Amino acid sequence: MRLVALDTLAERVGLKRGQGAADARAMCPSLDVIIDDPAADRAFLEGLADWCDRYTPLVALDGKDGLFLDITGCAHLHGGERALVDDVLSRLFLLGIEARAVISSSAGLSWAVARYGSAAVIAPDDAERALAPLPVAALRLPAETAALLERVGLKEIGDLLQAPRAPLTRRFGSLLLLRLDQARGHVDEPLSPRLPVPSFSAERRLAEPLQEEEHILELARHLSNDVRLSLERHGEGGRLFELLLIRVDGRVFRIQAHAAVPLNDADRIAALFRERLQAVHDDLDAGYGFEILRLSVLRSERLDPAQQDFSGVPDESQPLAVFADKLCARFGPDCLTFATLAESHLPERAGGFAPLTDVAAVIGSCPVDEKACPENRPLRIFTHPELVEATAEVPDGAPRSFNWRKTQYRVARAEGPERIAAEWWIDGEGYPTRDYFRVEDQEGRRFWLFREGLYGREISPVRWFMHGVFA
């Protein structure tokens, strides 16, 4: 058992990472040791990242114990950079979290000073002055490279700033100078946000937290109107909306709602979340209330303005879209499906069902051609062909009789065969060929059977299957 993480008090006592737990208890008998749980730590860090959305939507994870926040254009909303840092640290302290925060012009400089320095806000002109007294490990170098630098006497970053660059590159590699330039702000280091940045958003910060669902929906309607104005200015409609609820104790709830057609109508956007809140009612714990609500458009599309004709009859897709939105918001985006065709020779692969995500595309789609859906096949087939025992002429004759589901059928008339070759690029070259027959028994019932395999031509044994029944 070894120590993998320490708080500030444990570091002051003299404990080190990697130290044995028994030795640590000998040095500090009152030591409180908690078993490491990487999965729980990751979930907790992601929860903090959600909580940081109150400051900026650009939040990136930094390893196991850090976060990067791109606050460009956001600091003035919180009273400036110094006020923002104080607000972050004070709120985290009230939540029982010990944290360090640094604002600078580069991610590398903030990372270095937060872990090895003491400043809170660093001006761009003070970057080298803040880096100089820090150890070389603050440059996010591999442990071997940092140890080699210390071995040759380059223990602080200030020693590297004065050294020639060419010998450093030959001795320690190009990564050393890249990290050094990133920390100084000479090389850009873009951040990758953990969540997509919304195209449009509207936010309300409340003096009194909200707990009642009706109050949340009323505020969501006002936010929908603000988002509508932004969508109209850009000529777009939202397809995927997200309502962000930040609780007083820091827990964050994200509720997403899909739209079957592009929307920029405030009432319909609010109606989506009315259905979603009813669906997630049991999982939405308001606690002491929500202090921040934000409505975002995660995906939008071009929405051309449309005008009703003089008859006053609305577009036929609108009632269906409203119906689809209500059902998908209540039961999930996959509750409604529609039939689709696929490019495949095998009947069970030639069709399927897809989620109804775009009502206008389904209504305006072209009719299916006769070749794609021939009349000599049943409208519905079995998902899995059922094995039957059949008697037929060899090698290519139609069945004379067959036994299916413990019932014997005698064939009066038959048509075929319709030969369908195997899809070798999916099933392999050894997959057998199929010969389909349309048969009718002596009582007028019609069936769709196929023989799998060819006599004398394929290695696999010949078998008969029932694939569908005609109405």
From TrEMBL:
Residue ranges constituting the DNA polymerase Y-family little finger domain according to the UniProt record: 199-303
Highest taxon listed in the record's lineage: Bacteria
Coiled coil: none
Residue ranges of every copy of the UmuC domain listed in the record: 8-111
EC number: 2.7.7.7
Catalytic reaction(s) noted: DNA(n) + a 2'-deoxyribonucleoside 5'-triphosphate = DNA(n+1) + diphosphate
Keywords attached to this entry: DNA damage
Alphabetized InterPro entries for the sequence: DNA/RNA_pol_sf, DNA_pol_Y-fam_little_finger, SulA_CellDiv_inhibitor, UmuC
Cofactor(s) listed: Mg(2+)
CDD domains, A to Z: PolY_like (cd03468)
One of the Pfam families matching this protein, by short name: IMS_C
PANTHER family to which the protein is assigned, alphabetical: BLR3025 PROTEIN, BLR3025 PROTEIN-RELATED
General function of this protein: Poorly processive, error-prone DNA polymerase involved in untargeted mutagenesis. Copies undamaged DNA at stalled replication forks, which arise in vivo from mismatched or misaligned primer ends. These misaligned primers can be extended by PolIV. Exhibits no 3'-5' exonuclease (proofreading) activity. May be involved in translesional synthesis, in conjunction with the beta clamp from PolIII.
Description of how the protein assembles with itself and partners: Monomer.
Protein name in the entry: DNA-directed DNA polymerase
Provenance organism: Sinorhizobium garamanticum
